[in-house]
Structure formats: C-alpha cells, structure tokens
Amino acid sequence: MSLQSIRLWFRLFLVNDLASILFLFIWLIINISLFLAQFLSYHRSRSYFYLRALIYDGVSIARASALCLNFNCLLILLPVCRNLLSLIRYLLPRFVTQSRFRRFTIRLFDQHVEFHRCVGYAICFWSLIHVGAHVYNYERFIDVNNEHDTLAAVLNLLYLKSPESQVNPVGKVNPKTLGVGIMFGTTAGITGVILCLCLILMVSSSTVMIRRSFYEIFWFTHHIFIAFFICLILHGIQGLVKSQTNLQEHNPDICAPLYREWSTSPQCQIYPRFTGSKPASWMWLCGPLGLYLLERILRFIRSLQHVDIVDVVRHESNVIEVRFQKKAMTTPQPGQYVYIKCFVLAKFEWHPFTVTSAAEEDYVSVHIRTVGNWTKNLAKKLEKYPEDLPRLSIDGPYGSPADDVFNYDGVVLVGAGIGVTPYASILRHIRSSKAADNIRLRRIYFYWICNTTACYEWFAQLLQELEQELRDRIGFLTYKIYLTQWSMREARAVIENNPDERDLWTGLQAKTKYGRPNFDVDFQSIADEDWKTKQRREIGVFVCGPKPLAKQLQKLCIQMNDKSASNNESQVYGILIVFNSFIVAVELSFTLYFLHEGTIYSEHLCTPWITLNYSLYLLNILLMAWTSIERYLFIYHEQLITQYRIYLHYIPILVIILYCPLFYIGIVVLYPCQPVYHVDVYLCGGACYQFEQVLGLLDWVGNGMTMVWVTFMLNVILIIRHVYQRFRMRRMIITADRRSTWHRSAKLSVQLLAIALPYMIAWIPYCTVVTIQIFQNTEQLAYLLSTFFVYFPYIQVLFLPYICILFIPEIKQKFCILYNKIWHGKFVRRHNQIHAVVLRQNTTLL
C-alpha cells in the first residue's frame, strides 16, 4: 500500500466515520465512567459493608453493571423514534448557523440504526456481566450457610435476632438439589430469567439473514421489548440487595472486628438493621418509553388515514410510479422519503421510498423499481388500476441527506439508474420560479449514468421541462447523461441520427455521452469556475448509486480539497505563531510578574515555570530549524516534499511537538537531583541538571546552539545560492518559465529570512554570551546575561506575528478571515470547497 493510499484512507475515515467514532467514544467513556463510579460507590459505602462481608465485591459489580444497563436501555429506543429525529433535522438548520457543525450533527442522525445496534450489543455485554455477578452472589449466599464462627456466619443468622437484621435473602439449600427453587421464588429471579430469554430472542432474530429473508420474524420478536422493559422495571421491586440503616448506632468500621461481642460491647450493643434498596430502573425508562409511545401512537394514527391513489404509471426498466393523496399529511420537502405499507401483502411490513414529486404539486408520487418479492407483488396488485386497488398506508415524510442540497452554493447531483429518484423532487422544486429566486443554490451540475436507454423514459421528460423553463438562467443547470452499455442497433441509430439538434434518446439539446464520466476533469473545471464573487463557495456532491461510485466520488472530493491544502506553503509559520502566542499568553505572565515584583510568588512555581519556559523556547528553536530545512527542500526539491509530505512535514512537526515537553519533564521534573531555587532570580536560577557538566552541556549544545546555527547557516546558503543564480542569469538567455521560477524561489527565501531574522537577532547573541560564560566565567558577563540577554528571546515572540502579516500573504489572509469572523460574523474566501454526501436506499452512508 502506497503512502498516498494510506493518506487517502485516513482522510476517508475522517470524512465518513470521525463523527460516529467521536460520538461512540463519548458514549463508551460514559459507560465506563458510570460503571467505575457505581462500583467504587458500593465498594466504599459503609451502608453495604456487611453485605460485602457476605458476597465481597459481587454486589459492586452487579450494581455497576445494572446502572450501565439502565443507561443503555434509556438510549435504545431513542434512535428508532423517526418522528423525533425528523423534528431535530427540521429544527437544526434553524438554530445552528455553522454549516460544518450542522453536517457533522446530521451525519450522526443519519446513522441512528447503527447506533441502535451498538446500544443493543452493549445491553448484551452488561447483561452478561450482571448475570455472572448475581450467579456468583447466589452461590455465595448459599455457601455462607456452611460457615461457622466467622463474621459472615454471624450475619447469616441475624434474622433470628430480628427480622430487620436479615441480610441474606437465600436460606439453606439441600446440597442434593440444584438450588434454583429459591431463585424462582423471588421477583428478581423470575424477571431475570424472562429478561435473558427476551434478549436472546431479540438478538438472534436481528441478524442480517433473518431480517432480509424473514422480516416478519424479526418484526414480531423485536417487539418482545415490551415484555423486556416491563420485567426490567419489576426486576428490583423486591429489594433483595439490602443496605444498613443504623450506621450511627452500629458503626461497621468499629463493630465488624468485634462481631463476637455484639450486644455485650458498649460500642456495639445494637445489632445492625437492613432495608432493601428501592428500584431505580423506572426512573431511567419512563422518559424514553413515553417518547416511543407517542411515536407509535403517531404512526398508528397515520396508518389509519385513508390514502387515495390518484394514478399509477408504468415505466420501462421495471419502474412504476404511484401518485396518491393523503389528508392531514405534512407536505414532503425535496429529498425526503416515506414508508409504504400494503395491507394485502403484509400487515406489519413497511418499505421506504423517496418522494419524487415537488412540494408545490397537489399529489405525492414515488417511483418503485420492481426487483424484490414485495415490490413485484405490489406491481401485480396495481396492474388493475383503477379497479380493485389494494389498501396502502403511508408514514412520513422523513428527512434524508438530500435535505441539505439547498444549503450549498452549488451542487453536483450524481444518480445511477433508479438512483436518480432523490433528485426528481429537488429539480421539480427548483422548477418553481418562486423557489428558484429564494434558495441559496446558484449552480446545479447533474449527472445521470444509465446502462440501458429504457431508463431514460420517465426522467428525461422532467429534464426537457427544466430545459425549457430555465433557459433564461444561463449556467444554472448543467446536465450530462451517460450510457454505459449499448447494442449494435443503438450504435447504428446514433450514427445515422447524430446530426439532429436534439438527442436521439432523451430529446434534450445536450447529447447523450457514451461511456463513463471523467469526474476528475469535470470536478476540476467546476472548482476553477469564476462565479464573480468574493465569498467562499461551497459545492456539495450528492450521489445515489453503487458503493464503488460513491467511494470514487468521496476520494475525488478529498483529493480536490487536498490540492488547496497542499498548496499552502505557510502552514508551519502558522504553527510557529500558535506556539509564540502560547508563550505570550502563559509563560510571559510568569516573567512579567517576576519583573514587577522582583520575585516569584512561591518556590513551588519554579519547577512549572522552568519546564514551561524551556519546553516552549526549545520548541520554537527546533521548529524554526526544521522550517529552514523544509523551505530549502521546498525551493530546490519540491517534488520530494510533495511525494513524501507526511514524512518530511507532518511527522517531524509532530515529533518536535512531543519531544520538547517530554524531554524537559524528564530532566526537570523527574530527574533525581536536588534543586536549589532562588525566587529572586529569573527562572529561579535554573534547573538542577544544568549544574551537571555532561547533561547540561549536552542539552545546551545539542538542543540549543546547534539548532540556532542550523537556521543561520541555511539562510546564508539560500542567500548565496540565489545571488549566484542571479549572477549566472545575466550571462545566459533566460526563458520566462525559468525567470518565474527564480522569482518564486526568491520570494520564498525572503519570507524565510524575514521570519528567521528575529530568531537570529534574539538567539545568536544569547548563545554567544552563554558559550563564553561556560568556558570563562566573569562577573561582567554574568551580569549582562542575567540583566539583558536572557530576555532577548522575547524579541522573536513579540515581533513574529507582525512580520508574518507583512511578508506572507497567506497568513495575512487568515488574519483577515479571523477578523471578519469576529467583527462581522462571516468568512471571506475565494476557493471552492467540495463536500461529498452519499445517498443509498433512502438512508445515508455519511
């Protein structure tokens, strides 16, 4: 696997799965945190001291896993509340103005079914832990009956003293039996077994094979969740897990070692009393159960409403169009979908279909491709239209990724075969002059890829209408239709009729293209178009088709956006500004306080001050040295930098950022030497390792002086090389390309010199004085060093942002963008950005 493939895979991961992974990571952290918090609470609780004496930490594990079970049972129903998700999708654009955050959030809602599965797996896992812990507890409760003269034996017999002192809910069991009779005599035992059976049935019937082949089995067994939740609410109602109530009268920390002297010792005259814990599952489940109940009531009411089938149109390529009207139905917006149920075929089977009609039309239509058993049977039932029509039920509409089409400046719509259906309602909506004037959308690039000419029938008519109605809006709609397979008859017909003004198959002015689209060339031309605007233009790519096509377009979008990123030659300067800003915001405050007061506030602050100062300044020195090396390679070996960008750009920067703080934490904080700090001296006199000759000299020469002189020498070499090239150019005939290359190299070298100059002004005098001081220690040099030269490095810290703004246009543009964002609330950019959105079977990949 090549480096480019690894980088592209990583970018695809960020685009497709980052939102989901972050959300799942937060959800996992919450699960672990709840488990640990509940475990430690029961492990340390004095109320459960004697219960732990009987069953050890079995109670802690059982209660911790029970809390995680309640938390996940709270979440399991929320992802399947379709109306709730649609409401959030409807409200989100109205309250969230940042488009990236909105799309980030919408991706999470698009993957609600996957999250539902993850929560189901978590319920299985925590159930296994909970059952295992209670099996251990049950065995331990039984074994306690065989102990004598121990604290556990005394606790087991306390019920003879008082019923309130009973802590063991399990009596003595005949060793010749399995001992499960007592378990089935408790509410927790019966409901626990029912819960396990329900969970096994629901999980085993949720596999892909059963869902696709035996949907009714999946549907019916999944609704056992009603019994599951009822048993879960009743599971802890008996209160078998008991806690001590009289802690003040009977302190277990004192009385536990004196268990033989209870009732005789003056400190433990009263026996411990226990009470069962109250059930808590109902508090977790009432909210989601209420929401899901409202969801099902709303779906049931919708399913009872009468649906009038207005028309049934049979198209070629096994596609039927069903037009219907329904009272009290929310008008479907472009790109949304509905669920359809046919009572004759299956009373509980719902299938999603994209709405292909516009919101302005007086009917709702869907196009159904007859490829499965259900769709083929439905097509047979609709053949008798308008007589003997089957009863249909409609649920919806619900949102889809296509809702986001009108939040872009331009969109690329790619459909393959029947995958063109999500765009039918979008284009019909745009056809309305009122809608076209109000939406943000300014450019549409439509691609339709078909393998046979029979697919053109129903959608080509819509394109012809759009072509006529949008003639005045030049450049608004650009469409390209591709035919990937054709017969000899079709090829002969094209050759004979090609001179016609309109296409032979579609009747459009734009001719059908044969083969597959070259998206690389097309996307580049789209990104390079001049829209005569200074604002940033966002272009969304929507695709509904096979997975290979979706992946191809995703990769291409990332590569297109990476081109603008790879052309950013000033990225490392931005990193330098960030760390210099951190010095100003954090480290400089220590120095200013020291200069104002003449001392540091406390000796305890010396170690953090030294570590922070050394780490940040070494970070600046190393970054500047590597910037000089990288800029030299970029000027004279640009192909090398481009080919190995990860190894020569990202990895060195990452290593430097990690190395500096870790190195000084090791030798300042963890190194075994005794520091002697002076709070009235800058940096408290320095770290103790500096007084050791080998380590101190190695740090100073290896990390400090060497990197400063590397920066100095590379800048001198660049200047000499450019002067020499300029001298040679006077003696030969120079082409325009070579002259342009020299000017570009000179510009990059001047930028580097301008940035490196404050570093050299600050660090070369300081390094020179320190080096002389090491070999010839004098009071005058020590005074100059401690009074003046130690503050020289702040020169480059304070002047770097201004130099970057003056000499680097890219940095200046970033500052202008930030200024406009803060003071005017908007970004000003010129580059197109392309975002990929995938539509697949009315659900989303992204």
TrEMBL record:
Reaction catalysed by this enzyme: NADPH + 2 O2 = 2 superoxide + NADP(+) + H(+)
Domain G-protein coupled receptors family 1 profile: from-to ranges: 551-804
Residue ranges of domain FAD-binding FR-type in the record: 302-404
InterPro entries per UniProt: Cyt_b245_heavy_chain, FAD-bd_8, FAD-bd_FR_type, Fe3_Rdtase_TM_dom, Fe_red_NAD-bd_6, FNR_nucleotide-bd, GPCR_Rhodpsn, GPCR_Rhodpsn_7TM
GO molecular function, one term: superoxide-generating NAD(P)H oxidase activity
Record's bilayer topology term: Multi-pass membrane protein
Localization of this protein: Membrane
Transmembrane regions: 21-41, 118-136, 178-202, 214-237, 572-594, 614-634, 646-671, 706-724, 748-775, 781-808
PANTHER family: NADPH OXIDASE, SUPEROXIDE-GENERATING NADPH OXIDASE HEAVY CHAIN SUBUNIT A
A cellular component term, taken from the record's GO annotations: NADPH oxidase complex
One Pfam family cited in the UniProt record for this chain: NAD_binding_6
Full protein name: FAD-binding FR-type domain-containing protein
Naturally occurring in which organism (per UniProt): Adineta ricciae
Keyword Heme among record annotations: no
